[in-house]
Amino acid sequence: MTRPRVLLIVVSIVWLAALGLAQSPAPATAPSTVIADAHGGYAGSDACKDCHENAFAAWRRSLHSQMTRPIEQASVSGQFALDSPVAQHGRTYDMDHAAGRYSIAVTQPGGTPERFDVDYALGAKRFQGYLSRLPDGRMYVLPIFWNVAWKRWLDWREITPVPDSNHDLRQIWNVNCFNCHATNIRRNFDVATRTFATTTTEYGIGCEACHGPGRQHIELTTGWRRDPSSRKAGGDLKIFSSRFATPQQVFDSCAYCHGNKTNYFTGFTPGDRLEDFAQLGLLSDPVPATDPQGDFWPDGRPSRFNRPQALTLAGCFRASEISCTSCHLAHGSPNEFALKVPLAGSDGLCTQCHLSLTEPQALSRHSNHAPESAGSRCVQCHMSEVNWRLLTRRRDHTFSPPVPELTARFGIPNACTTCHDHRSPEWAASMMDTWYANGSRRRVSLDTAETMYAAGSGQVET
Q1: Structural element, H or E, at residue 425
Q2: pTM of the entire structure?
Q3: β-strands 114-117, 387-389: how paired?
Q4: Which tens digits make up the pLDDT trace of 72-103?
Q5: DSSP bridge pairs for 105
Q6: Which of 220, 231, 281, 413 is in the most buried spot, having the most CB atoms within 10 Å?
Q7: In Å, how far are 40, 135, 171, 288 from 144, measured between CA atoms?
Q8: Strands (E), 127-222
Q9: pLDDT (tens digit, 9 = 90+) per residue, 17-70?
């Protein structure tokens, strides 16, 4: 076996182990209980607000709650009152809003207009999409989206790789997206009639999407209020809580929706092991011919917004010292990116563990920039914008130091020339050689990327 293939296999095994496939903690709830209660015991988010008033109020303002909403309950961002139809990529869209109803007429190249009622809104931050429930129960993701920041309509070819043909491709929400955009969704596909009778506890990411079925918890705490003496210290709360979970369990609960994956089984609830139900996308997965970008850079880092896969490569996570909730608030936050603190103060999230870097002189020695400068901000150097997707850039979650050589060789963004955009990656590499005498870590990163690129390209020479 050739050296590139051997190294690719070794890297893949290490990455799988980091994902938790080799050794994962036992689920928070016994498997028999999870299986028995996987499709029952849901109470809905409204049942949580009396006891968790602040968390409920924050969640109601969050993007999670707006992930999918019936159109009559949604805050509609798209401009439906237009003087003329929108024409892009050979398709024409004619929007209409009358008598409280929204609709979009879609004309495929060479076809005739077909009007669809808008029954649901999808998303609220970067884009808002619209779903139409078809007669057979399928929920069709209409192929035009509203760009919230730009305030304009975009054909789906602008934001996702689709084949260049006149075929009327239809992305179906309750086939492709059902696992993550609602709470306790059941597709209810009837094989005999080839129809769907899809149900949910609620649309959007409700409390129980992240905490699991809540009815047993409600019954338990109701009993406590009736008889305070029945409450036992350290007892089972009958609910998943990140405060009492391992970093891996928290990661699995978030990664199930925040990373691209292949679903194998339904019924995942927080506390389960992700790999028992799905597999996160891997570097070795084939890339469709219609996708010129792919999901990963040659060095193994995600090139899209696959934050869970990136986090598995972070030393902090692999040491079981951090997880998603170390920095983010799932209930929602007034801060950008749902951070616990404003982005300007995000160094405080890192110095929860890296205490020595709270001292300005130590920080300056570490960064080789003035302590108060942008070059000494943790996110600027360790979370460069390597994720490009949905017409935006997202920050790297491997927390890796810059390797300018990867930019010169593969075009992978690095923090140095992202900030100093008038400089070359070779200049950045020479500066790092001056500051950090031993560049062996960067050479390992470059060698790994070279090997993985060669293996992925089918190069067989040793």
Answers
A1: helix 425-435
A2: 0.85
A3: unpaired
A4: 999 999 999 999 999 999 999 999 999 889 99
A5: 94, 115
A6: 413
A7: 35, 21, 11, 22
A8: 127-133, 139-141, 144-147, 152-155, 171-172, 182-183, 189-190, 195-196, 202-203
A9: 444 433 333 333 333 333 334 447 999 999 999 999 999 999 999 999 999 999
